[in-house]
Write a structure and sequence with these properties.
It is a single chain. By secondary structure, the protein is of the alpha/beta class. The chain folds into three domains: about 130 residues, 3-Layer(aba) Sandwich (Rossmann fold); about 140 residues, 3-Layer(aba) Sandwich (Rossmann fold); about 160 residues, Rossmann fold (3-Layer(aba) Sandwich), CATH 3.40.50. About 40% of the residues lie in helices and about 20% in strands. Strands 9-8-11-10-12-13-14 form a seven-stranded mixed sheet, sandwiched between helices. Strands 16-17-15-18-19-20 form a six-stranded mixed sheet, with helices on both faces. Strands 2-1-5-6-7 form a five-stranded parallel sheet, with helices on both faces.
Length: about 475
């Protein structure tokens, strides 16, 4: 069987079910492929149309004179097997089956026959019951989700179609660049394990995030083994759906998956270095921090704030995540004392007080990043009349640039519309920013959690 390299870097793609009707899924996938800028050959397949979007149509894949690497299939479920037979004749390597109406509605035999028949031709199957997939290095958007996905180094695998599409849009809003977005649906053939193995060696992927409802029988041990190897090099974040009995039942009815016991998954994740997120928000917050920061080189984390309450919330959040703040280095304390009032607090969090100006944020951030005893920094800001949110945001960005260092930084900002604009600005600069002190602190904690997880798998499992 083929490895997945030609799925993500195909020279040609056929869209079976392409249509003149813009509301049809096949039409939307064709448009995304063309307009996102895929550089390979695109073949719309439709027996009743001569041309679509300036591209010549063919009645069947086997009528395409050149070879086809990937066939994206969006036709009714009762026609899929016939399409697979035709793809087999044409030498197609991968079938991306968008179509629903298989195991998730009780038609397990139809799904099993789909895979059996595809494998008899040497075809790997992604799906069925999916929204497609994206690989930004190849400018490939073979999905019916948002078109303008931002390029970056986070790979996202989703077992949920509708949620996956929504989260595609969320990555754009949060300015999170992705290397890939892959919908796996029923996982009749290609699954999370296969994709982890591909992303392990993918130089364009630095962080892997998975929305997981369940695994196929017999794949649990393989997941642990592969994830342990991958997590020694790249963070893996899993949103485990079906953590409760009612959630597990919902997952089973959704994609036909076996959600299993959450205790079993938690144990497996610990063994393999996977970070388990209980919410979509946590997972994306962590992904952003992990994608944009290197790992801290020590335990000395400093928090700088202009509000005592924000500092307390931050301290509690760190403690909840097993991260405990130490007394800040004396050199840093003396530097910040030069411009702050005598009633400022220097216990860590360093509270510059509500008098803090944009310039104080620049000077304090710069001093912390240049101090060799500081290993990581979380900056908090509560909107005040003596600052502008964008001024503070620009001061933080300038300080990071002026420091010439690459220590991990997260930022939490609380306030009105101006703060929302400043948070967006920071994220566009690849500074991981959040609208609360708790989220900024939890995101920084994820770096320490990954450092601990990586150390565990390297030491305990002997992975080098």
């Amino acid at each position: 069987m083929e490895d997945l390299s030609r799925l993500f870097n195909p020279s040609s793609i056929a869209i079976i079910g392409a249509s003149r009707d813009p509301s049809k899924i096949g039409s939307q996938i064709l448009r995304n492929l063309v307009e996102y800028g895929f550089g390979g050959k695109i073949y719309p397949i439709n027996p009743t149309v001569d041309e679509l979007m300036g591209l010549k149509c063919y009645p069947k894949v086997s009528d395409v004179p050149e070879g086809v690497d990937v066939a994206v299939i969006s036709v009714p479920s009762d026609k899929v097997l016939g399409v697979i037979d035709d793809c087999g004749k044409a030498g197609v390597k991968f079938a991306v089956v968008i179509t629903s109406g298989f195991k998730e509605v009780g038609k397990e035999e139809l799904e099993e026959e789909l895979v059996r028949r595809a494998h008899s031709y040497g075809i790997r199957v992604l799906g069925p019951n999916i929204f497609g997939y994206v690989y930004t290095p190849a400018r490939l958007n073979a999905s019916f989700g948002p078109k303008e996905v931002i390029s970056g180094n986070v790979a996202f695998i989703s077992q949920s179609g509708a949620l996956g599409i929504a989260l595609m849009g969320y990555t754009i809003v949060e300015n999170i660049g992705v290397s890939a977005i892959v919908s796996v649906g029923n996982k009749a053939d290609i699954d999370d394990v296969d994709l982890l193995e591909f992303f392990e060696g993918d130089p364009n992927t630095g962080v892997i995030m998975i929305y997981l409802e369940g695994l196929a029988p017999g794949r649990g041990r393989k997941l642990i083994d592969v994830a342990a190897r991958v997590s020694s090099r790249k963070p893996i974040i899993v949103i485990k759906a079906g953590r409760t009995e009612v959630g597990a039942k919902a997952a089973a009815s959704h994609t036909g998956s076996m959600a299993g016991s959450v205790a079993v998954y938690e144990s497996a994740f610990r063994q393999s270095g996977i970070l388990m997120a209980k919410s979509v928000e946590d997972a994306f917050d962590w992904a952003k921090a992990l994608a944009w920061n290197r790992m801290p080189e020590g335990e000395n984390l400093v928090v700088i704030t202009n509000g005592g309450g924000a500092g307390v919330q931050s301290t509690d959040t760190f403690a909840d995540n097993g991260v405990y703040l130490k007394r800040p280095p004396e050199g840093l304390v003396q530097e910040i004392k030069r411009f702050t009032p005598p009633f400022a607090s220097f216990t860590n969090p360093i509270d510059m007080t509500g008098m803090a100006t944009d310039d104080w944020y620049h000077r304090a951030t710069l001093a912390a990043l240049k101090d060799p005893e500081v290993h990581a920094l979380t900056v908090l800001y509560c909107q005040t009349a003596v600052t502008t949110p964008m001024g503070v945001a620009r001061s933080i960005v300038d300080a990071i640039k002026d420091s010439g260092d690459s220590k991990p930084v997260t930022v939490g900002m609380v306030g009105g519309p101006g703060v929302a604009e400043a948070v967006s600005f920071l994220n566009k600069q690849r500074v991981a920013a959040y609208p609360t002190p708790e989220r900024a602190s939890a995101a920084m904690s994820s770096l320490y959690a990954y450092a601990r997880a990586r150390e565990y798998v390297v030491r305990s499992l002997g992975i080098s």
